[in-house]
Amino acid sequence: MRAYQSGVSKLSGSNYGEVRKRALGVYKKFLKKTRRRPYVRSAYFEKEKVFLEYFWPHVFQKNPRERFNRLKYFEAALDLIENSKEQPTMKVNQNNKQEILYRFAGITREKEIFYVQIKENKKIGRKYFMSCFSPE
């Protein structure tokens, strides 16, 4: 799997509150673009919409330290979804055969590797941004 070189760096901040505030600021830009559900158009999926609504409930299931680490990659992950044409790894969800999980690799401006996971519902064809994280 080849990694997409993002031009965006990790969100700065020394604690969870600072990083969360910056991540919500980035998210609000996408909220303002539509009156309905926020989305990003993906280059890999031929400009199809990738909805962002599953990310926040998923990240709030994690412990605070993990939440902090994942939110740092939020802006770089959205850049990857929007611009990457690199081939991801694909896997059918073992718990639900109607879902395909895509995992994209990316590199931030500081040369740190991160992954972005997108879930596709095969039945209705919708794609959802699930998570972004570092390999550690």
Summed up:
This protein is α/β, with parallel strands linked by helices and 136 residues long. The chain has four helices and seven strands; from the N terminus they run βαββαααββββ.
Number of helices: 4
Order of helices and strands: EHEEHHHEEEE
State the share of residues found in helices, binned by percent: 25-40%
Uncertain stretches: none
Q: Quick one: biggest sheet?
A: 7 strands, mixed
Question: How big a fraction of the residues is strand?
Answer: 25-35%
Overall body shape: globular
Overall pLDDT confidence? 91
How many strand elements?
A: 7
Distance linking N and C termini: 18 Å
Radius of gyration: 14 Å
Classification by helices and strands:
alpha/beta
Number of domains: 1
Write structural notes for this entry.
- This protein is of the alpha/beta class.
- It has one domain (3-125).
- Helices cover 29% and strands 30% of the residues.
- It has helices spanning 16-32, 55-59, 64-71, 74-83, and strands at 3-5, 39-42, 48-51, 89-92, 99-107, 113-121, 126-133.
- Strands 1, 2, 3, 4, 5, 6 and 7 form a seven-stranded mixed β-sheet that branches.
- A hairpin with a 5-residue loop joins strand 5 and strand 6 (113-121).
- The longest helix is centred in the N-terminal third of the chain and has 17 residues, at 16-32.
